[in-house]
Amino acid sequence: MVFMSLSHIRIILVEPAGALNVGSVARVMKNMGLRHLVLVNPQCDPSGEEARLMAVKATDVLEAAAVVQTLPEALIGCQRAIATTGIDRTALNVTLEHPREALPWLLEGRSPTPIASALIFGREDRGLSKEELNYAQRFVQIPTHADYSSLNLAQAVAICGYELAEGVRTAAAGHQEHQATVQLSSEQMSRLATLDQLEGYYQQLEMLLLKIGYLHPHTAASRMEKMRRIYSRAQLSETEVAMLRGVISQMEWALKTELKP
Hints:
By secondary structure, this protein is an alpha/beta fold. It has two domains: 9-172, SPOUT methyltransferase, trefoil knot domain (Alpha/beta knot, 3-Layer(aba) Sandwich); 193-259, Helicase, Ruva Protein, domain 3, CATH 1.10.8.590. Helix content is 47%, strand content 11%. It has helices at residues 19-32, 49-55, 59-64, 71-74, 89-92, 99-102, 130-133, 153-172, 186-191, 195-211, 220-234, 238-259, and strands at 9-14, 36-40, 66-68, 80-84, 96-97, 117-121, 138-140. α10 (195-211) packs parallel to α12 (238-259). The longest helix is centred in the last third of the chain and has 22 residues, at 238-259. It is elongated. The termini are far apart.
């Protein structure tokens, strides 16, 4: 099933530098029916005159925007997240998808109280870091001409917003073609672990693996990237994450007990 609105989709901008861009993003969001804007550590005044000028009749989107300090804060409560990136896939070692193929994944599922999904956009000048990309489960790259591949932030949001809105329209007409993704029932969707729950598990797992010597400080980041990919594909439930954290807690207790004189 698909949501008949985009009210559960968060558009997350990481450290936007230009107030004009933020205002333009608010405008295209309202054009496409997106309402939930989250700004991570903005480097400009998102409520100032420049932003409001570009937002035109979407000042309500600006005024309702949430401002947080970190990307994990922006993702609290989300079950699914897609990041946009211009980095070459060989450098990331991940699959980069066309927006039309990946974005319908954010529309799947239905529940009385929809669980949020997120679409993450990086800085105007350098996008998202590899560390920040770790917080997403899938990745999209907007196809552009090789002569000039860089898109303006608001243009990128507009393209992705259009694809999301088109997905809703197509679904409403009864012609939605589901991609090769796992289709989940309403009950299954409501039980999926949120990204902040998964992040707590990843941090606990990394500390244990460093402690037992499986990970080393200089290689921990790259190894944990692979771990995250594995768990993202598994679509763990809240119960499963709790079980895995319980296993780690027991292992930590056993290690402490063994080391006692």
